[in-house]
Amino acid sequence: MAAVWLGRIGALRDAAMALDQLKAFLVRMQNDEALKSKVLAAATADDVAQIALKLGYEFSGDELLRISGQKVERVTVRKNDIPGEYS
Q: What ranges make up the beta strands (E) of the chain?
């Protein structure tokens, strides 16, 4: 039972660290027009996470989607629903 609790505590700590990384990335993005353009051109949240990873910020696309609708500093995170193409 102790191992389960330790696992959950570790997961919560990791989630908090990822959220801190995500917030730091968004703050950087608001002051960097080139980065902002890359992010806005990204097709998916995972693509945004990959852009961030290249700059040293570690979070997942899922973590980005979880804060959709929230405001961090002057950045409001929004999920864009773009319908796929069908043949």
A: 71-72, 75-76
Give the pTM.
0.74
Mean pLDDT by 10 residues, the chain (87 residues): 50 70 91 93 92 95 87 76 51
Scan for tokens 């069908």, then name that residue.
Answer: 86
CA 16 – CA 20 distance, rounded (Å): 6
Would you call 55 helix, strand, or coil by DSSP? coil
Domain ranges of the chain: 35-79
Question: CA dihedral defined by 52, 57, 63, 66, rounded to 10 degrees?
Answer: -80
